[in-house]
Design goal:
Number of helices: 10
Number of domains: 1
Largest sheet: 8 strands, mixed
Order of helices and strands: HHEEEHEHHEHEHHEHEH
Strand content: 15-25%
Number of strands: 8
CATH class: Alpha Beta
Radius of gyration: 18 Å
Helix content: 25-40%
Oligomer: single chain
Low-confidence stretches: none
CATH superfamily: Alpha/Beta hydrolase fold, catalytic domain
Shape: globular
CATH architecture: 3-Layer(aba) Sandwich
Mean pLDDT: 95
CATH topology: Rossmann fold
Structural class: alpha/beta
Length: 303
């Protein structure tokens, strides 16, 4: 692909391009890809699996770095609302904890199509409320809680900010949206034209929304934050997009919408990258991306 970072292009064949029509197969593909990744360095980090009381209960994995700084990051995995779990997300969540010095709570939210919208958002919101309510027990400053994620997880992070604002929920210090999935309408230039890009294609994107929205197929601003008419009063944001990604333009447009609403935004459009290419840890551009994500959260959560 013309313009792709050569270090990334060599790995494209490893990224399955199969569609999402079979959720079980898609989950197996993601699990295999995650298991092939080098294990993270867990030096100085303790990990505990817990359950957040809700209906139903929400599994979380809590990462506590030694010398914790008092901030917390509620982290949502990607996977098109269909794939991913605490295990596949372990390398990401542990690296976020190491990079930020913050408590990281990785959320095992319910997946579609078995549990369509709003199940995943309900789970994330329950974890946000639990984190704020148990801040003292967790060693967290309730005024220093960030929400973050990538792909569908970034979409859920954006959605929980909207919901918490509208429902008078816990204050959120910062939102980090990495390659966010925000718009079910798929009308942007990148959504219409990137039909054969690695890992994420237009067809695959449509299938993720079909699974997430369920038979009714109706989306509101909490399902698809790009539909929100009012972005005022939301937390400051860091948004990262990839050049060869159907989701690229909706991330950029969401950043512009936040700016127009008076919300501080840092936007980084990474050239030569594709959706999920940060998993290629040997590439220099991936290392820069991961370092910047950690730095953005670290700055935002500073006391």
């Amino acid at each position: 692909m013309v313009g792709m970072d050569p270090e990334l292009e060599a790995f494209v064949p490893l990224f399955p391009s199969a569609d999402m029509s079979d959720p079980a197969a898609a989950r197996a593909n993601l699990a295999a890809l995650a298991s092939a990744a080098p294990p993270p360095d867990m030096t100085g980090i303790t990990v505990e699996d817990r359950t957040v009381p809700a209906s139903p209960a929400v599994p979380v994995r809590v990462y506590r770095p030694y010398g914790m700084t008092g901030g917390a990051v509620i982290w949502m995995h990607g996977g098109g609302f269909v794939m991913g779990d605490l295990g596949t997300e372990h390398p990401w969540a542990s690296r976020v904890a190491a990079a930020t010095g913050a408590l990281v709570i990785s959320v095992g939210y319910r997946l579609a199509p078995e549990d369509p919208y709003p199940a995943a958002l309900d789970d994330v919101y329950a974890v946000l409320e639990w984190t704020a309510r148990h801040a003292t027990e967790l060693g967290v400053d309730p005024e220093r809680i960030a929400v973050a994620g990538h792909s569908a997880g970034a979409g859920l992070a954006a959605a929980v900010c909207l919901r918490s604002r509208d429902q008078g929920g816990p204050p959120i210090r910062f939102q980090l949206l990495n390659q966010p999935e925000l718009d079910d309408r798929q009308e942007t230039w990148s959504a219409r034209n990137f039909t054969g890009t690695p890992w994420m294609t237009r067809a695959k994107l449509a299938q993720t929304w079909g699974h997430y929205l369920g038979p009714a197929g109706a989306a509101d601003e909490y399902a698809a934050p790009a539909r929100a008419a009012d972005l005022g009063g939301l937390p400051p944001a860091y948004i990262a997009t990839a050049e060869f990604d159907p989701l690229r333009d909706e991330g950029i447009e969401y950043a512009l919408g936040l700016l127009r609403a008076g919300v501080p935004v840092e936007l980084h459009q990474w050239p030569g990258t594709f959706h999920g290419s940060q998993a290629i840890l040997s590439a220099e551009i991936s290392q820069r991306q991961l370092a910047e994500l950690g730095a953005a959260l670290r700055r935002a959560l500073a006391s």
